[in-house]
Design a protein that fits this description.
Blueprint (H helix, E strand, L loop, with lengths): L1 H16 L12 H14 L16 H7 L5 H12 L5 H12 L9 H12 L13 H10 L7 E4 L6 H9 L4 E5 L3 H9 L3 E4 L10 E6 L7 H11 L1 E12 L8 H13 L2 E4 L16 E7 L1
Parallel strand pairs: 1-2, 1-4, 2-3, 4-5
Antiparallel strand pairs: 5-7, 6-7
GO molecular function, one term: methyltransferase activity
InterPro entries: SAM-dependent_MTases_sf
Organism: Nostoc flagelliforme CCNUN1
């Protein structure tokens, strides 16, 4: 597991530096990266990215045989590879060697190891309303917020920190406060160093912020409740930028109709996102979404 974590970090570092080897360019989120590295760990007898030998006597032909053996275990590995754009033995070998080329990266931070272990433990675990914001979308939300140094900013559904990470990267000099209801996710946020001020956003009263950026739960129009509450928690001239399901734009029940009237009355700006905007999330979902921007 520690060796897999090392690969995870080094590929993440390569993405941050903009020098991802072409054979690995389709591995751009945690879930496929984790599956890929775990598969290679089972393939390599000594999967040490620092080792001088690669694939302990594992020849190219041995890798090629995975695609032709017909064995159920090999077929499962091939299915994972196809999912990240690797479709034959040569591409598999090239990807293995590309990952090997990332050895010798930065020293591993034990705290980072713990964070990644906790994130990996969440794979396959259902947390109601938890769909991490993909990195490009998180950056878009932060850009729309119009944040300035010294502002007090709230992320009311911290999750694993996607929006917080985008905020910290672009605006390190703001007062960022976070709320998160799930215990395991709060542990991740604490390890990342974020200031958690509560666990239930809807229970927060008598506190106001300059900016609120949010990705609330969508089920049963819960995002409407969270959006209205967030608007109430804004200071004068404050701004809310929140991701929402599109359901409020067309449903005919009173809650959705009243919310449409409210958005119109406050001059909200709605940006419909492309289909599949959350396919790159660590927990992909096909729910159609958009971004609502409201000034107070």
């Amino acid at each position: 597991m520690e060796l897999v974590q090392t690969w995870l970090y080094r590929l993440a570092d390569a993405w941050d530096a903009g020098n991802v080897p072409p054979p690995l360019s389709r591995i751009d989120s945690r879930s496929p990266l984790y599956q890929f590295t775990m598969m290679l760990a089972s393939l390599w007898r000594y999967p040490d990215p620092n080792a001088t030998r690669h694939a302990q006597d594992y020849s190219f032909q041995g890798v090629e045989d995975i695609w032709t053996s017909g064995h159920s275990t090999d077929q499962a590995k091939c299915k994972i590879l196809v999912g990240i754009g690797i479709t034959n033995g040569q591409m598999t070998w090239d990807a293995m060697m590309a990952l090997k080329s990332l050895s010798g990266g930065s020293v591993i931070d034990p705290k980072r190891v713990k964070i990644e272990q906790l994130l990996n433990d969440l794979i396959g675990t259902r947390i109601p309303g938890y769909f991490p914001t993909p990195k490009p979308l998180a950056q878009r939300v932060v850009d729309l917020a119009g944040i300035r140094d010294g502002m007090r900013v709230l992320e009311p559904h911290g999750g694993s920190g996607s929006l917080c990470d985008a905020m910290k990267a672009k605006h390190p000099n703001v007062v960022l406060e976070v709320i998160e209801i799930d215990f395991d996710l709060r542990e991740i946020l604490e390890l990342k160093g974020y200031n958690i001020i509560g666990h239930d956003f809807l229970a927060i009263q008598d506190v106001l912020w300059d900016r609120i950026i949010a990705n609330p739960p969508f089920e049963n129009l819960a995002d409407i409740d969270h959006t209205l509450h967030a608007f109430d928690r804004l200071l004068p001239n404050g701004r809310l930028v929140t991701i929402m399901s599109v359901a409020w734009t067309f449903r005919k029940d009173k809650k959705a109709e009243d919310f449409r009237d409210w958005v119109n009355n406050v001059g909200g700006d709605w940006e419909l996102l492309p289909e599949g905007a959350f396919y790159e999330s660590d927990r992909p979902t096909g729910v159609r979404t958009g971004i609502l921007v409201v000034n107070k």
